[in-house]
Write a structure and sequence with these properties.
This protein is α+β, with helices and mostly antiparallel strands and about 325 residues long. Among the domains are: about 15-75, no CATH class; about 85-205, Band 7 domain (Tetrahydropterin Synthase, Chain A), CATH 3.30.479. Helices cover about 50% and strands about 20% of the residues. It has nine helices and eleven strands. It has helices spanning about 15-35, 105-110, 130-135, 140-160, 165, 170-190, 210-280, 280-295, 320-325, and strands spanning about 40, 45-50, 55-60, 60-65, 70-75, 85, 90-95, 100, 110, 120-130, 195-205. The strands form four sheets. Strands 6, 9, 10 and 11 form a four-stranded antiparallel beta sheet that branches. Strand 7 (about 90-95) and strand 8 form a beta hairpin. Helix 4 (about 140-160) packs across helix 6.
Length: about 325
């Protein structure tokens, strides 16, 4: 007669089996209790603790304990770490040489400007979480909401400007206005998100019109260079001409002052001589004659002095000397 097979515990008494089962259940409960009562919060994180789904407290980095078996749950939030959302492109790997996704994100980047042109705008939004409780419970899907609001704000700002402003001089104003608008909407939603900055990465015309736009921009740059060159020539020529004019004016004024002073001096000298002449005419006449001769005679190269009573002058002249020498 064949014997019926019984398991390894078939020969174990029923009370003993109950005791072993109880020990197994107790061990499982102890393990579950040990693994569900403590948790660790990493640096730059906080833990938002809920009890039966309701907010209870917020824990800082470190080791913490909570009610076991899921009665309390801890949701970790990266509170102090700056996070980034990319629009119009995606970074695959940020390394020494950054790699970007080849997927087309033109649905995010192609925008209509205020002058009815198109611009391909790629930008990033950097943010951090200032209020973890609001971040988790005030807004459903906060990251998706952030992306939707950011794209709406950027399109509104781009739509108020010309394509030239968007591509050239207006980037800083666009970034600041978009950041302000985005932060204002997030504050109205009580999202708990703080926008650090909005940064335009690349702004360029769509591929279909890029060659024509490049030609236009080249012409504008050439125009600006010519204007700058003309201003440079103007700034060099005008000060030089003004300097020459001031120099001529100064010289003329100096000459006029000198002539006036000389005339005044001569007039004063003549008045003094006249006064002396009236006192002693003969003496003054001789003195004037001698002073004049003293100034004139040194300028003569050769001098011939004749006696006023001499009858002829030929015997006194050395004609050979006069012929070969100075006259």
């Amino acid at each position: 007669m064949s014997q019926e097979y019984r398991g390894p515990g078939a020969s174990m008494p029923r009370a003993q089996r109950i005791r072993v089962g109880g020990i197994a259940v107790a061990a499982f409960l102890l393990v579950a209790l040990a693994t569900t009562t403590w948790y660790t919060v990493e640096p730059e994180e906080v833990a938002v603790v809920t009890r039966f789904g309701a907010y209870v407290r917020t824990e800082e980095p470190g080791l913490h304990f909570k009610w076991p078996f899921g009665l309390e749950k801890a949701v970790r939030v990266k509170k102090d770490r700056n996070q980034k959302e990319e629009f119009g492109f995606r970074t695959v790997r940020a390394d020494v040489r950054t790699q970007y996704s080849q997927q087309d994100y033109s649905n995010e980047s192609i925008m209509l400007t205020g002058d009815l042109n198109q611009a391909d705008v790629e930008w990033t939004v950097q943010y951090n979480i200032k209020a973890p409780q609001a971040y988790l419970f005030r807004v459903r899907a906060p990251e998706r909401t952030l992306r939707a609001i950011a794209e709406s704000a950027m399109r509104a700002v781009i739509g108020d400007r010309s394509v030239t402003e968007v591509l050239t001089v207006g980037k800083t104003e666009i970034e600041e206005e978009c950041r302000t608008t985005l932060q204002s909407i997030l504050n109205q939603y009580e999202s708990g998100i703080h926008i650090v900055f909005v940064k335009l990465q690349d702004v360029f015309p769509p591929e279909a019109v890029k060659p024509s736009f490049t030609d236009v921009e080249a012409a504008k740059q050439e125009k600006e260079e010519m204007i700058l060159q003309a201003q440079k020539s103007y700034n060099e020529a005008i000060p030089a001409a003004e300097g020459v004019a001031k120099q001529l004016i100064s010289e003329a004024e100096g000459y006029a002052i000198d002539r006036v002073n000389r005339a005044k001096g001569e007039a004063e000298r003549f008045s003094k001589i006249l006064a002396e002449y009236e006192k002693a005419p003969e003496v003054t006449r001789k003195r004037i004659y001698l002073e004049t001769m003293r100034e004139v005679l040194p300028r003569l190269r050769s001098k011939v002095i004749l006696d006023g009573e001499a009858g002829g002058v030929l015997p006194l002249l050395d004609l050979n000397a006069l012929k070969g020498g100075e006259r």
